Amino acid sequence: MSNTSITATRNAEFFNFIDGTYRPGSSGSTFENRCPVDGSLVGSIHEASAEDVNDAVSAAKAALDGPWGAMTIAERSDMLYAIADEIDRRSDEFLAAEVADTGKPVTLASHIDIPRGAANFRVFADAVKNVPGEFFDMATPDGTGAINYALRSPKGVIGVICPWNLPLLLMTWKVGPALACGNAVVVKPSEETPATATLLGEVMNTVGVPKGVYNVVHGFGPGSAGEFLTTHPDVDAITFTGETRTGEAIMKAAAVGVRDVSLEMGGKNPAIIFADADMDAAIEGTMRSVFANCGQVCLGTERVYVERSVFEEFVSRLAAEANGLKLGEPNDTSTQLGPLISEEHRQKVLSYYERAVEEGATVVIGGGIPAMEGALVGGAWVEPTIWTGLADDASPVTDEIFGPCCHIRPFDTEEEVIALGNDTPYGLAAAVWTQNASRAHRVASKLNVGLCWVNSWFLRDLRTPFGGMKASGIGREGGVHSLEFYTETTNVCIKL
Ligand code: NAD
Questions:
Q1: 467 is a domain residue
Q2: CA 488, 473, 456: angle at the middle one, nearest 5?
Q3: How many domains are there within the chain?
Q4: What's the confidence (pLDDT) of residue 372?
Q5: Residue 446 CB: number of other CB atoms within 10 A?
């Protein structure tokens, strides 16, 4: 047992957090957490058994019947603000934990991952206080009338299954609204990134969140904590972010007992650059959308379509910028690109680098493993890579790679590029670059995506709907959309 600080220094131990207490898995099984920067051991993760997951779900259920269930919205909101403040106060620890797990540059994690982790509690504390209720005044044949109003109640125990690319940010994006609505959660962080979810348990205890409201169980998917959680009959709803095929398995598990699901899944997102775009802005935005977080962002661009008259200029400018990206230690503030999450993921990305060549690509830049020095040789590094010349059905153009790479293709007409943009099983995000507002509106309305940015990328107002169409997901998160998922509605009809 341990209640000591998890500071993501070497030899850390990542315990499950169940009913307000840190504890190892009952089976005694542990697995390694390695840092992708150099392959060094961060620490060991205590895998939760089916019994541990059951304990976590039972603790969550009990919390709903305890003081947590009795709190007013105002009291819960105050608690969420306190959680956010405590994350801010300990932001250096969260930053160190996230960087050790992911290898992402501190400049990125300190601007995006950690502050958004705190903001996710504040925004839903505000949302839940301000969401109006539904009311209908109804005429009846006898003339006395009736009134209808909708009551909202928490759904219950929410299973939260998280990916590794933005661990704290994406986990709190679910836990924030779930708690705001009065639910209790059992979180299963990615096996690659256990640290910040574990650390958040300390925050919950510090600010006085009742035990059992927030639980963390560690492990893998099939045959491990992920499966134990999603098949547990007392889990009332499941919210998931990750790969589409995992989402399909989770949806099947959720069908038993008819549990609700929110699925945020993969993408193969287009960026469309018209000749009338502000080229400096388009290059700057596309650099971020392709290479931020080493290309491991669900909203990131992997297909770039450029109007033919500016194609050569765009390719050479993007290649020049990408060639200048500085790979290196995450704590070096001049580092712009970190490693991929793991050696296993590097093998996947490199397999696409090989297939691109086999399928006829022109490799504009990159395509291999960069020459790193010293300890970094042991890390999961790949070169930023740009291709041209692939067919529309080549695998690097159709499959989500989730690496720092893109294919750039010329187009001639608006209709053509809309068809190209939509030619994918996915429907998550798009970025359109043009100074013609009518065209921007026209194209945005015809792209089958949940999020369309015009002349920007990853500009997020957390009150707006977030999610994907087609194989990219089911449901929307953000603002009142999250509150819809995390609550049940009861219509009360009173005959007067
Ligand atoms: P993943 O699907 O491999 O794993 C996600 C989580 O699911 C992990 O915690 C894993 O242990 C768990 N899991 C795996 N199999 C399971 C099963 N059968 N039952 C229950 N849980 C199971 O995804 P990943 O590799 O961690 O993340 C990368 C993927 O996530 C990419 O496809 C990316 O596009 C997607 N993603 C989507 C969004 C979005 O908002 N749409 C955001 C970030 C990442």
A1: no
A2: 110
A3: 2
A4: 97
A5: 14
Q: What is the model's pLDDT at position 10?
A: 61
User: DSSP for 299-330?
Assistant: T-EEEEEEEGGGHHHHHHHHHHHHHTPPB--T
Alpha-carbon distance 426 to 268, whole Å?
Answer: 6
Q: Residues 386-428: pLDDT tens digits? A: 999 999 999 999 999 999 999 999 999 999 999 999 999 999 9
49 and 173 share one domain: yes
Range of the domain at 344: 269-461
241 contact partners, CB below 8 Å, separation of at least 6: 161, 162, 163, 170, 174, 264, 265, 298
Query: pLDDT for 444-485, tens place per residue?
Result: 999 999 999 999 999 999 999 999 999 999 999 999 999 999
Q: How far is the CA of 221 from the centre of ligand 1 (A)?
A: 9
Please list the residues that pair with 307 across neighbouring strands: 411
Ligand 1: list residues with CB < 6 Å. Answer: 161-165, 170, 188, 190-191, 220-222, 226-227, 230, 241-243, 246, 249-250, 264-267, 298, 400, 402, 428, 468, 472-473
